[in-house]
Design brief:
Blueprint (H helix, E strand, L loop, with lengths): L4 H23 L6 H20 L4 H13 L3 H14 L6 H20 L3 H14 L4 H13 L3 H14 L4 H12 L2
Length: 182
């Protein structure tokens, strides 16, 4: 258990040190190696201590969900994300909404990996409502629609992405892919 703000800050620094590179790799869709997984596993007890120190914050739950997902514990990740979304009491605002949207996005990616596309779309709908000007969530929704064979829906969602960011590279790639199959 952390007892002081200084211990909390030290724990956060250690978690950042352990998770920064592996989470960057995940964001870039690069494979994780054994050292990455070892670092992520080592971060989990520290993240738990951070959550116990301040259970009302979203960031601890969001990070733990990402780490569990990265280590292959999808059920654990979903439990943590859902618990954090349901219990954390961080003030409303743009930052908190973005953290919540990211948490919904993580859950949606797990549902998508399981081919539970309807659940993934429902969860991403929450992310889109929380962060309507962030094109990532519309893109992810388009990607899931494409995986589910809903090409027209995917194209509509991509048009929304382009309305926000006309130069969104991954969306352009998906658009070209969808156009090739017409």
């Amino acid at each position: 258990m952390l007892h002081t703000g200084e211990e909390f800050n030290e724990a956060n620094a250690r978690v950042r040190e352990l998770t920064l590179k592996p989470l960057e790799k995940m964001a870039n869709r690069e494979p994780l190696d054994g050292n990455d997984l070892k670092d992520l596993e080592a971060s989990l007890p520290i993240i738990d201590r951070i959550i116990k120190f301040d259970p009302s914050t979203l960031e601890g739950y969001a990070l733990k969900g990402k780490v569990l997902k990265a280590t292959g514990d999808f059920n654990g990740a979903l439990r943590v994300l859902q618990f954090g979304l349901g219990t954390a009491t961080v003030d409303q605002g743009n930052y908190a909404d973005l953290v919540r949207a990211d948490m919904y996005s993580e859950a949606a990616s797990i549902y998508s990996m399981r081919k539970q596309y309807e659940d993934a779309q429902m969860v991403l709908g929450h992310a889109i409502r929380l962060a309507p000007s962030d094109p990532r969530f519309l893109y992810e929704s388009a990607e899931i629609a494409a995986l589910a064979g809903q090409r027209e829906k995917a194209k509509e969602l991509l048009q929304g992405v382009f309305a926000i960011d006309s130069d969104y590279g991954r969306a352009k790639t998906l658009w070209r892919s969808l156009r090739e199959f017409e």
